[in-house]
Design a protein that fits this description.
209 residues, seven-stranded mixed beta sheet, 9 helices, 24% strand, EC 2.1.1.64
């Protein structure tokens, strides 16, 4: 629905999304060793990348959308000029301690196996992938027909796709963990317990082994 500058302004103005983003960024920063390099995968307009760079982390950004990249270059002009943010054409063009993928980037993939194999050549051993995915267990979505229609698929297969132009996929954490093996292991899922049912997004931390 939003591209480029529209998306950028929407995300900065949305109180709900700002809260989610702040939680994600803080978790990433808490996990990153001082000065460690990070790849912002599906970086959008560079909002997260700008924060990582401001906290002393050399940041690579990979964003396939030209409209998003154009906005990112404008938004992060100073950091790009200083060399604290670098745009890359492939995740394989860098070696980092961590990869972050915020706001449902991984929900655009039908299968993550090939992606995690690629990321295993980017993330150093002991590093991590931190991903924010749409939560298939969010009870607020139960009011939608597509959620109710796919409940059996979620229970049986742990995965379903919503019939739309963007073909967004929803995954149970175990499905992502299975795709990430043997290169990564699922270390943490946030939120935990019954709190998961109240959140639109879930955070998955996958450790490089």
């Amino acid at each position: 629905m939003h591209t480029g500058e529209q998306y950028h302004e929407f995300m900065l103005a949305s109180p709900r999304d700002r809260i989610v983003r702040a939680r994600f960024q803080q978790l990433a920063l808490d996990l990153l060793p001082a000065g460690a390099a990070v790849l912002d995968f599906g970086a959008g307009t560079g909002i997260d990348a700008k924060t990582y760079a401001a906290n002393g982390h050399p940041t690579f950004v990979f964003e396939p959308s030209q409209a998003m990249r154009d906005c990112l270059v404008r938004h992060c002009r100073d950091e790009i000029d200083r060399g604290t943010i670098a745009t890359i054409a492939s995740p394989l063009a860098c070696e980092v301690q961590a990869v972050t993928a915020n706001f449902a980037v991984l929900n655009h993939f039908a299968d993550h196996a090939a992606l995690f194999e690629q990321l295993s050549r980017t993330v150093r051993r002991g590093g991590f992938v931190l991903a924010s995915l749409l939560n298939p267990y969010c009870l607020a979505d139960a009011r939608y027909r597509w959620w109710r229609a796919n409940l059996v698929n979620l229970v049986r297969r742990g995965h379903y796709a919503i019939a739309s132009e963007s073909r967004i996929h929803r995954f149970a954490p175990r499905i992502v963990a299975r795709a990430a093996a043997p290169y990564f292991r699922l270390e943490r899922r946030l939120p935990g317990g019954f709190a998961l049912a109240s959140q639109l997004y879930m955070f998955l931390l996958l450790r490089r082994v």
